[in-house]
Each structure stands twice: as structure tokens, then as C-alpha cells.
Amino acid sequence: MDTSRIEQLMARGAAFFGTRYAIMGGAMSWVSERHLVAALSNAGAFGVIACGAMEPPRLAEEIAGTQALTTMPFGVNLITMHPRLEQLVQTCLDAKVGHIVFAGGIPPGSAIKAAKDGGAKVVCFAPAFALAKKLVRSGADALVIEGSEAGGHIGPVSLTVLAQEILPHIHDVPVFVAGGIGRGEAILSYLEMGAAGVQLGTRFVCATESIAHANFKRAFIRAAARDALPTTQIDERFPVIPVRALVNEGTKRFMAHQKATLDRFTAGELTKEAAQLDIEHFWAGALRRAVIDGDVESGSLMAGQSVGMVTREEPVAAIIAELMDQAAAALVQRGQSALQPAL
Fold first, then answer.
1. Domains in the chain with CATH codes
2. Cβ-contact 36, 24 below 8 angstroms
3. Quick one: pLDDT band at residue 233, thresholds 50, 70, 90?
4. What dihedral angle (degrees, nearest 10) is formed by the CA atoms of 125, 38, 316, 299?
5. Maximal C-alpha separation, the chain
6. Of 312, 150, 306, nearest in space to 218 by CA
7. Are 75 and 98 in contact (CB under 8 A)?
8. Which residue from 170, 176, 57, 197 is spatially nearest to 125, judged by alpha carbons?
9. Is 164 helix (H, G, I), strand (E, B) or coil?
10. Residue 94: how many CB atoms within 10 A of its CB?
11. What is the mean pLDDT of residues 59-68?
């Protein structure tokens, strides 16, 4: 299938990344490490390392490991609440990483400035139109708008709505869409709405190059969209960002942990920031048990609602080729439909 027209629609996003396709890999802790990231970049997409709870020396190792597997551009995703955020930014700059993605909250202006002054392009997540405008004013070079259909930490609004609210109005920087995207037809639709490209995470979990445990991959292949549900907040005094995952015993354990952490916060044993960091450490450990150790009962199975479109294990290059072919075929079909006489 000739995908040249789709590549033209992706041109702005691809130029921003320095890649063939404006397809950005979602940063998934323990999954988005050197092997998957390099495979994405080598296949013409843009891989992104998930730093998660890594300390600067560990991140430096992962960047170097990725650079040993690809000469193509890739980025690093940093969680804004990490206590050593600015050191992590410097770690990326020292390794000549060209794109730094800030996630999990609004990044401090000092971190954005340090990244840009060091020569990196800054990508930020915008969960609302007002924040999108604020982030552009703060120096973001590109935005990702991620709907609640996504896996892992999510906002409250679907991509369908966010795209309508933001894409017609933000033109100064490229805007990438994310959340629930699993087929090329959807990619085409968002490109036509004005998106510069897309971010996909769940679709790549079962890539051949993904180091995720076979049990983890099997859970994804078996799952339907309705199996990926968000966690609930148990007390409005202690806001916890919902996490979308396949429901299992680990989901129940998180609810118990959230209550215990809330009790410690209420008793004055933890500050709000320390309590939220404790929650993040819980997720990091639970996710590792599932992804690395294969404990799909008590570990965390973070997954987006597009998990129902993950039906087999296959190479990254094959997944990307399928997505691009689907988008190109949809574009051809639209052209043919336009030529058909009305009945």
C-alpha cells in the first residue's frame, strides 16, 4: 500500500522528531526500555524511554544502552514529581538526547528552561485547553493530548473531546494525540483534524522486541476493551491520579494501599507530596512484578482500552506497517466513495 499521502499528513510531526513517521511510542515503565525504544526508532517511529522512578545513573545507563541499538532519534519521558527531576534533565542533556518529555503534571519552569537551554526540545502533556495554552507560553515545543482511554495514569476527559477542544485552536506547536488509538483509520482521522501525529503505547506492549513477560503479553492478548478500567479515588482530600489497568488482585491491593497512605497523610505522618510519591512507588513495584516477573495476579496490568485490538505478538515494524497501510487504505476508500454517484 502506498503510504506517501499519510506521510505527507504526518510531515510536521515527523520533522519535529526527525523520523519517517509521526508515531510516538508511549512511555510505559519497565516496558519502554532500550529494546522496544530502539525497535520503534529503527522502524521509523519515535521511541521514548520511560524513566519512571530511575535515578540519574540508571537513566544514563538506559540511554547509553539505547544508543548502542539505534542511531535514530529517540526521547526520554521524565515524571515531574521525581525528586531529582533537574538532575535527570541534565543526564539527558549530557547524553545528547534531543527530546525530553515531561509527564505526570505541569513541569516547573526551571526544568523546561534547563532542557531548552541545553538544546533539547520539550514535549508536555496537556489534559485541558487552558493548560495547553499555558504550556505553550511556558516554552513547550510540542504537546501531547492524552484521553482517558489511555493506559496507566489518565486524565478525566476522552480523546474524542480533547481533540475537538484543542486541535482547532493550537497551531503554534505540533500537537500529538494519544489514548485508545489502535488502528490506522483512527490515525488518519486525527491527522485530518489537525494532529501532527499520534502516540501509541498499549499497541506495542506485545511487540516481539518488548521484554514484557510472556504472562503479561498473554493477558493483553486475551483482554477486551472493557477489561481495562480506571482506579477510583477514595477521598477528595487526597487526590490520586486514576490509573487504567486490567482488573486483577493487584487492583484491590492498590485500593488498600491508597487507604493506608491516606490514613498516614491524615495522621500527619506524610506530607501530601510524600504520600503521592509513596503511591507512585507502589505502582512502580506492582508494575515491575507483572511486566518483568510475570505476576499477572498481584502485579499491575496497566493497559489502555485499545488492548482489545492487541491480538498477537509481532515485530514493531509489522505493527507500524499495518497501521500505515490501514490509514492509507482508508484514505483511498474515501476518495473512491467521493466519486460514487449518490443514489
1. 4-212 (3.20.20.70), 214-302 (no CATH)
2. no
3. confident
4. -60
5. 72
6. 312
7. yes
8. 176
9. helix
10. 12
11. 98
